[in-house]
Specification:
- The chain has three helices and six strands, in the order H-E-E-E-H-E-H-E-E.
- It has about 130 residues and is of the alpha/beta class.
- A hairpin with a 4-residue loop joins strand 2 and strand 3.
């Protein structure tokens, strides 16, 4: 007898799905993958899920409540060296923390929140 196991949907799942939907609406061929599949990433962030949009040359990463934003500092510089952009999405309550942790990094920050059964995004900000 097989038992179906359904894992709970996380905030990262919801945000990643919403980001992919935005790219699909713009007819962009974006893909979700582990960061280590795209670049040689430090072990601490290699398994982080990323949305990669090749036409716009951007990588978008949604951080959960337990992830430290500063772990993406090296990733930001590697992507910048390759002429790729990085957008880090964090819950609105963590936006100030992300600004402090990533100050001076070549990336954008974007807050998000969940309301009325949908993910909503704030504007892009420089840390």
């Amino acid at each position: 007898m097989a038992v179906a196991v359904q894992e709970p949907i996380t905030s990262v799942d919801l945000v990643t799905e919403a980001v992919l939907s935005v790219y699909q609406a713009k007819v962009e061929n974006a893909t979700e993958m582990a960061l280590a599949e795209f670049i040689e990433a430090p072990r601490s962030v290699g398994a982080v899920r990323a949305v990669v949009a090749p036409r716009e040359r951007i990588v978008e990463i949604a951080l959960d409540d337990e992830s430290s934003p500063e772990t993406l500092m090296d990733v930001a510089w590697v992507l910048d060296d390759r002429a790729w952009k990085l957008n880090v999405l964090v819950g609105l309550s963590r936006l100030g923390e992300a600004h402090t942790a990533l100050r001076g990094a070549p990336l954008t920050l974007q807050g998000w929140w969940y309301e009325a059964d949908a993910v909503h995004f704030a504007g892009y900000e420089l840390p």
